[in-house]
Structure formats: structure tokens, C-alpha cells
Amino acid sequence: MINDTDVEKLFINYKTLEQFKRFKEYGNQELSMIEDLQNNIVENNSESPFYGIYFGDNLIARMSLYKVKAKYDNYFNPPQEYLELWKLEVLPDHRGEGYGKRMVDFAKSFNLPIKTNPRIKSHGFWEKMGFQKAKYEMERDLGENPLIWLPKGVSEKTSDNS
Amino acid sequence: MINDTDVEKLFINYKTLEQFKRFKEYGNQELSMIEDLQNNIVENNSESPFYGIYFGDNLIARMSLYKVKAKYDNYFNPPQEYLELWKLEVLPDHRGEGYGKRMVDFAKSFNLPIKTNPRIKSHGFWEKMGFQKAKYEMERDLGENPLIWLPKGVSEKTSDNS
Lengths: 162, 162
Prior knowledge:
Strand content of chain A: 25-35%
CATH superfamily of chain A: Gcn5-related N-acetyltransferase (GNAT)
Order of helices and strands of chain A: EHHEEEEHEHEHEE
Structural class of chain A: alpha+beta
InterPro entries (chains A, B): Acyl_CoA_acyltransferase, GNAT_dom, YlbP
Oligomer: homodimer
Pfam family, one (chains A, B): Acetyltransf_1
Number of domains of chain A: 1
Keywords (chains A, B): Acyltransferase, Transferase
Mean pLDDT of chain A: 93
Low-confidence stretches of chain A: none
CATH class of chain A: Alpha Beta
Shape of chain A: globular
Strand order of the largest sheet of chain A: 1-2-3-5-6-8-7
EC number (chains A, B): 2.3.1.-
Number of strands of chain A: 9
Domain N-acetyltransferase (chains A, B): 10-155
């Protein structure tokens, strides 16, 4: 039985897209999903890259996880498949209740390295989750502030092994 | 003679890096510049990717511009060299005085396509500057909201010509 507040894969449909509007980091990605649904480019209830936690009927936390292929890996050593995590967000009424940590633990459970690029000042949270700043490389990061999480046996790419 | 409020190339030195601290989008990039300077990895007064406007002695606006090679272009048609613009910011006391527009006009003067990925809600401004939303592609944009500017003769890459 699924616990009421387990992390679930989210599916693309009008109801979910409507719930997404409550999140601050609502942008082109979501608008493009609505368009694709309207134009029958994607089917109703097709898989999205989002995961979330419901509290009753309400989506109260979400994040997106995308598996990046090893050939595009510029962060880890050895170069390997990793997860790009974005738009991790818990609705204001439910902050401080451990949902953010539950989402990140879910992401870690794939046992792949994780990269994220938090848009809001949240370095304290990510540090507690065991993430570290990637060594800044201008050509790669272009002003971004990537954070990475390394599972056992994986290290950060350095200029020596790039 | 340089006008007092012309756009200037900024050089990496402790004074400039100190002035950068007033800007909201201060991050790993700047911290890494300080470290590189302290460890003599970069020379004092070496070129930075930043441009700025001084009002008297004070840096009141800045942005970073980086030329991306044609082989990495995933946005334009035909694929070509373009400018990645980031961290455009005018200090609060000087907003609404046209400095943002002056910076963007400077970037446009290279006559290369421009891509930017604004972190703060500023779509109205970018629209006025003639920028448009790039058609969202998940594998490329990973949750970001890129905006592009097309000089004459350049169009957006579509899935047809990718």
C-alpha cells in the first residue's frame, strides 16, 4: 500500500498541470506541457519528469529528475550517467515537515550521482543533504551555481581527469 | 573620451570583486575569481567576462557575456557562434534610468544571436528588449526558461533543422 505521503511519479494531465501553478518555479516547461497536451502531441496521463508528494488531494511538493547520459557528463569521475534534479519545491504551508528531505532521499535512492542548480538561496538545505558545490568552470557553468551529490565510489571531475 | 556611464569591460581585481558583492546574483563564479586571484592562478587586472557601468566610482550595473562556439549551438539556425548573457543586474538605486537597456544594447552591438536565462522574473523587460522565449526542449533546457534574441537573418532552431 502506498503511504499517503510517499513520493510518486507524476503524470501529465490537466489536473496535475493546474496544481503545478501553485509552485513558484512554474515556467516554460509547464506551459509547453499544456500546449503539447492541447495539441495532442503528448497523451493524457503520459509520464512527466516530475515526482511529487500528495497530502490528501493536494500536491504539496515536487521536483523534476532527468537521467543525463554518460557522454554528456562533465561533472563526475569516472564520467557516467547521472541525475539532473530541478524545481525541488515544497509549498509554504508544508515547509519544515521533512518533505524536502524525503524528496532528496528518493532521488538518492537511484544511487546515481546527482547534479542540481538551485535557483533560490537554499545552500544550507543542500549542504545538510550532503551536496557540495561543484568547482566552478566558466565554460561549463556560465554563471550558474551547480551543486553535486556523490554516491560511494564516485568523485568530482577535476581538470586533471577531464 | 569615455562617457562617465559607458559600458566598460571589467577586470578581475579585489576592488571590482568587492563591488560585485552588492549584486544579488553573487555566487560561485565570483568566489572562484577571488580564490584564483589569491592563489595567483589569474593575474591582477586580467580580463573578466563581465561588463559594467560606473556611476562615479561605483559599479551600478553589470552583466556577463560569453561567446559560445558554433559547435555548441543548440538554439539558432543556422548553427553559429552566439553570446550567452547572464547576471544582468542594475543596483536598486539606479533602476528605471535606462542602464539595463544600455547594457543589452551593448550586447546586441556584437550582432551575434544572444541567449539568456533570467533567474528573476523579468520577462517584461526582456520582451521590451526584443527577446523571445525559446521553444522549450526538455533535454536541452532542463527546467530553465531561456530567452533568445535574433539578429537579422538568424532564426530559431526548430526540431526540423536540428
